[in-house]
Amino acid sequence: MKKSSFPIGILPIYESFKNEVEYRDSNCLSYSIIKGLYDNPELLRTPKKQDDSEWLKFGTLVDLMLTTPKDYQVTNIIINDTIPSEQYKNICDYISLNNLNPDEVDESNIDEVFIKSGSKVNWGSKIKLQKFTDECLPYLNLLNKSKGKLLVSKSMYDEALNVANVFRYHRWTREFFPETPVNPGDTVEIYYKYRIKYSLEDLNFKSEIDLIKIDHEQKLISPYDIKTGTDSMRYFIRRALYDYGYGYQGALYKEGLKTFISKIPAFEGYEVDDFRFIYVSRLNPTYPVILRMNYAAHNEFFTQGIDTDQYFLPSILDITNATSNYLSEVDLGSEIIEPYDLWDTEGEVTIGTKEKRRGLVI
Question: Residue 136 and residue 91: Cα distance in Å, rounded?
C-alpha cells in the first residue's frame, strides 16, 4: 500500500494532557472561568463550584454517548433509579456536600443532620436514625461507589440516547460520528474530546474541544462543540452566543487551536476553520442545527467586544488584559478586587452615552 503523504494519525501525539483528570487538575485558565471573570475577579481566588444541575448532567451524558468508546460508557455511566424521596435526598445531599462520614451519624447528631438539611419532622432521635439507615445509607453508598462516574436514572438515559441518535444519524451531522473515526487510507480524520494547552496574551489557557475534523486534502482543521438544551432551534441560533456566552467559547477555542496547531510542523500550511456549534433541542429532538461563527462574529467576541443597551460583553482581549491586572492585585494581597472598567470611574457608570469604556474598542 502506498504510504500517505498526509500527516494522518499525528494529532494525538501532540495532545497536551494524558487524560481528563490531568486536564481538570491543571491550573490554566479556561473558558468556564474567563466568561464571568471580567465582572467577578474573585473567581481567580475562589472558583465557582462545579455545576451538578440536571440539565448539565444530561448534556454530559449525551457527550459521553457521542464521543467515548462503548467500553468507557459501560464503566463510567451508572444507571440507577434508587433515589430516595425529596426529604431523604436533601439529607443525602447535605451529607455529601459537607463531606460527612455517614458511618459517624448517630443519635448524638442525627437531629442536627435533619435540621440542617431542611427536614422539619417531629420524630425522636431513634426514629430519625432508623429512617436515615433505611432511606439514606443505600443511596449514600451508591454515591460513594459512583464517585467520578455519571449516575443517571433510566428515564434520563433513554432520553439522552434519543437525542444522541439525532446527532449520530441525521443526514446533516452523521458524517461527524462514523463507526470508526480514523481509518487507514482516509484523508479525513475526526477526533473527540481533544485537550490543548496554549498561551494568549502571556496567559496560559486550556481547552477541551468536543470534536475536531481534519480534511487533509483541503488542509482544513474544523473545531466543533456539541450542545443540548431546552431552547428552540431559532432561539439558540439568535441568542446563545450572547445570552450564554458561547461566543467567548467559540472565539477562544479557535484562537487557541490556531496557536496550538502552528507549533506542529506536520500541519504547516493547514488552516483552522470557523468554529461551529452543533445543537439539538431536548424538547424537540427531531433535527440538529449547526451554528457557524464567521469572521465577523469571531472578531466581535475576540477583538472588539459588544457594548449595547442589551449586552455588555468585553472582548477576550479586554478580558485577558483585565485578568493580568487582577492577577497582579492578587499577588499584592488585595482583599477586594473590583471590575476592571470601573477602576478609573470609581464605580460610576453613565447610561445613554457613546463614551468609550476603558480597554473596549467600539
Answer: 7
Q: Helices in 38-147 by DSSP H: which ranges?
A: 54-67, 70-76, 86-97, 110-116, 125-131, 137-145
> Residue 43 is placed in which grid cell?
473567581
Mean pLDDT check: name the lowest of 49-58, 67-76, 162-171, 224-233.
49-58
Residue 37 DSSP SS3: coil
Q: Which amino acid is located at 276 in the chain?
A: R
Query: Beta-carbon neighbour count of residue 162 at 10 Å?
Result: 13
Q: How far lies 192's CA from each of 11, 63, 208, 275, in Å?
A: 11, 10, 9, 15
| 3-state secondary structure at position 57 | helix
SS3 category, 196? strand
Query: How deeply is 207 buried, as exposed, middle or buried, from its count of CB atoms within 10 A (0-12, 13-18, 19+)?
Result: buried
Other beta carbons within 10 Å of 57: 16
Work out the angle at residue 22's Cα, subtended by the Cα atoms of residues 261 and 260, and round it to the nearest 5 degrees: 10
Angle between helices 233-243 and 246-261 (to 10 degrees): 70
Residue whose C-alpha is closest to residue 139's, from 98, 88, 99, 104:
88
Which of these, 151, 144, 153, lies nearest to 77 by C-alpha position? 151
Q: Are 312 and 36 in contact (CB under 8 A)?
A: no
| 3-class DSSP state of 157 | helix
Residues with Cβ within 8 Å of 262's Cβ and at least 6 positions away in sequence, in order, are none
Contact 203, 320 (CB under 8 A): yes
DSSP readout, 264-293? -GGGTT-EEPPPEEEEEESSSTT--EEEE-
Look-up of cell digits 475534523: 213
In this structure, what C-alpha cell is assigned to residue 309? Answer: 443597551
280 beta partners: 228
Q: What does the DSSP 8-state code read for residue 76?
A: H
The Cα 308–Cα 52 span in angstroms is 32
Q: What is the DSSP letter of 82?
A: -
Report pLDDT digits (tens) over 139-164. 898 888 887 788 888 999 999 999 99
69: cell is: 468508546
pTM: 0.84
